Amino acid sequence: MHLTDYEKAMLDGDHGRAKARAMDLLVRYGEALGAERLVEVNNVAGAFNASSPSVKHIADKGMDHVYSELNLDSDEVVEVPHMAVNTCQLITGIDNDNWKLQGASEEMIGAQRAGERFLGRRGVNMFATCTPYQVGNVPVKGEHCAWMESSAVIYCNAVLGARTNVEGKESTGAAALTGRIPYWGYHLTENRYGMHLVQLDVEVDDMMDWGLLGYYIGEIVEEDIPVLDRVSHQPNLIKLKHFGAAAASSGGVEMYHIPGVTPEADSVDEAFGPRKVQQRFRYGPAERRETYAKLQSATEDKIDFVMLGCPHNSLEQMAIIAEMLDGKKISSDVALWVHTPRALKQVADRNGYCEIIEAAGGVVMSDTCPAISRRLPPGVRVIATDSAKQAHYLPAIAKVQGWFGSVRDCVDAALTGTWRGGVS
Predict the structure, then answer these.
(1) Same domain, 10 and 115
(2) If you count DSSP H runs as helices and E runs as strands, how many of each does the chain have, helices first?
């Protein structure tokens, strides 16, 4: 691998042991990938905090030890300096405010808060969300990044036109200290062209339908790049957020094109560039119904738990949920958790949305989600969610039955204790 003089100096330890260990990791990583060089990045989104029981033995030794082992793959414990580039913390395992409701211990929340203080002073912005683009981290078209979190990566690549692969906690930990990441995969223009054409023969407009479409596409293209044709309605942030999360869950999609919507293609021809269309697919009423059925793992109509906000809810979504719950009470047999980024929760508080949701009997949570935390209310057997991603993962992770549907279907289930959703 070719290294610049500055990169060689970091590797040799001229800029401290932490950067030397980071460069050692990046060189090993890049060579395993077949990358010829590194590329400069100034935007890192990773997982740096250690707040789960599985890493308690490391956390007890201090955050320098945690970062060295978990974020640098280093047996040598190094003193962690200030981050070299713009860096943010993604979603964590515990809600800083609702940790008791989650069933977390004082010891674990104490470790999380201590970790946040340590990392914050070293330049890690504690966004604690899977949607950093909703709270200020918005890279521009063509900008090279190093991001974790599959639903964030697909949004970064496809919607923003920035460039990142799905990174891990080690590579993002090294990138944050060096401002470098291997130059391969979606950092290269030639790897960002479309591979399969998906023609829409049905209107796709609301959030649920974008989730269904994403889930269908992930299943059929797996890790390849789809190009969507005949999109009938302009999708907004919320719809593209749920589309990408679903496609990254059922498959491994990290990039897609919607000509005239996403920034790297104004036409189908431009989306494919020098590539030929490998396969053509059609998404119509039958595919929509079949995909909806695949996302239902429940056999019982009685609901115990409703989860809204994966990926984390936008402020607009918080307003919609509050409007649906205003002046109402959820069923005494149901727990309702509504998830939004910590920064947006502050605005939702000021707007009165949280007060309305909580008056109805719901809980507004931040920092985490049930799939990441592995924490649900005690005794939950049947869930309902507006997230195709949660409907995909949570039944397997938490051993529960799951219903997937629209926000209105889920709010109705919270109010009545019964699932009555469906598609025509």
Answers:
(1) yes
(2) 19, 14
> DSSP readout, 40-100?
E-SEEEE-----SGGGHHHHTT-HHHHIIIIIH--SS-------SSEEEE---SS-SSSHH
Burial class (CB in 10 A: 0-12, 13-18, 19+), 1: middle
Domain count, the chain: 3
The residue segments making up the domain with residue 289 are: 193-294
Per-residue pLDDT of 162-171, as tens digits, reads 999 999 999 9
Who contacts 332 (Cβ-Cβ below 8 Å, separation ≥6)?
none
CB 78 within 8 A of CB 64: yes
**Could you read off the pLDDT of 17-68 as tens digits, one per residue?**
999 999 999 999 999 999 999 999 999 999 997 656 556 666 678 899 999 9
Residue 122's pLDDT is: 98
Mark whether 255 and 320 lie in a shared domain.
no
Residues 170 and 41 in one domain: yes
Does 82 map to a domain?
yes
**CATH code of residue 171:** 3.30.499
C-alpha distances out from residue 354 to 63, 91, 287, 326, 330, Å: 34, 20, 37, 11, 15
Q: Return the SS3 of 178.
A: helix
HSE-CB at 131 with a 13 A cutoff on CA atoms is: 25
Beta bridge partners of 226: 196
Q: Under DSSP, is residue 403 helix (H, G, I), strand (E, B) or coil?
A: strand
Are 176 and 81 in a shared domain?
A: yes
- Are residues 150 and 13 located together in one domain of the fold? yes
